[in-house]
Each structure stands twice: as C-alpha cells, then as structure tokens.
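Recap quiz, item 2
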Amino acid sequence: NAGVTQTPKFQVLKTGQSMTLQCAQDMNHNSMYWYRQDPGMGLRLIYYSASEGTTDKGEVPNGYNVSRLNKREFSLRLESAAPSQTSVYFCASSSTSGILQTQYFGPGTRLLVL
Amino acid sequence: GNSVTQMEGPVTLSEEAFLTINCTYTATGYPSLFWYVQYPGEGLQLLLKATKADDKGSNKGFEATYRKETTSFHLEKGSVQVSDSAVYFCALSDRSNTGKLIFGQGTTLQVKP
C-alpha cells in the first residue's frame, strides 16, 4: 500500500516551458487535491476533484490545468511556467464519506522555474 | 469566508519543555478541525482531529480541544522531544462533499537538546 505517490520529486524549468506533475493514490479515495506550499503562506488549494470525472478550481488556479484521468490518478499541468510558480506542490486524497475527511498527502514535488 | 490563523513562528524550545501552538478559526456552521505535521523534506501527516465541540483529539502525546466558544483548537504537548521538530499546520474542513481543507500558515517548532 503506497498511499499517495508523486512524480517527479524535483524539476527545474525555464520560463515558458510546460510540464505535468503526476499523482496517484491506491486507497480507493473519491477526492483528490493539488496544493502549493510557499514560505509563510501555508498550503493553498490549486484544484480539486471531488469524484472521478469532476474537477473544480481552488484558491489559486490561474496558470494551471488538471486532469482526473481515473479514480487513481490526478495530474497537474503547467502550460507555460512562470517564476511565480516556483513552489513545492503536494497532491492529497481523501474519502469524503461521513465527517472524517482526513487527507493523505504525497511527498511533494519541488519545482524551480528560472 | 472560512479561515484559520496560527501563532507566528518559529517556536524554539528546550527538550522536555511544554508546548502550546495557538490556532483560531472563522467558519460558518460546525467545521471539523485538524492538526497536520510536516517533518523536514516530507509531506503532511495527520496528527490529530476533532469533529465536534468539546472533542479532544490526541496522538503521540499531543492534544487539542475543539473550543466552539472561543473558536480555537490549540495544540499542546507536555514534554517535547527533539524528534518533534517540524512544521505544524492547523486546518478546518467545512464538511462539504468536496472534503476541502483550509490551512493556517504553519508554525515551525525547533526543539533543542
């Protein structure tokens, strides 16, 4: 049981390049999330997918797109990277049944945009 | 809208000292409340949670009580260890079907031997 996995662990991009961050979970969770973590700002929600086939914007969606490929996988795409997107990106998943709503996090992807 | 405010860090303590990290929230209705911990170089892990007023969440010697009257969920530990050095995040969930969490900014704890 690997939990939530993310690839790559670290990436350097030049301004204007594109890339896709991959996330997968093996806990049969319905909901998946993408956050970015910046110093002094906690975690901010970029996009989420409450269930397979649905995606919605979070607090900071500009410059990003997502795809819920199936129940296991949720990818985040940067079409044209900007230095302001330098951050650590975390994927998370949760079961939305009842009031538990505990989110399980991946190890993160550290992205540097030059 | 919903929000979470944590005390500013970093917090530096000596081993075996008492820890309090303050967390207050603003929310409509009755949110669930969480503390997550992030060890260096890792993702976040759930530390404890509480789902209704006066509930006490506890784990690994840490405790937090859901105080509706003061809209607070302060994290406490009686005797910290060097291994507790990490970033601690308070968060709330509005119990919608989306399961979204709103996080505070995080508080860095450094414990010195």
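The interface with chain B takes residues 4, 31, 33, 40-45, 48, 50, 56, 58, 90, 92, 94-96, 99-108 of chain A (CB under 8 Å).
The two ends of chain A are 36 Å apart (CA to CA).
End of item.
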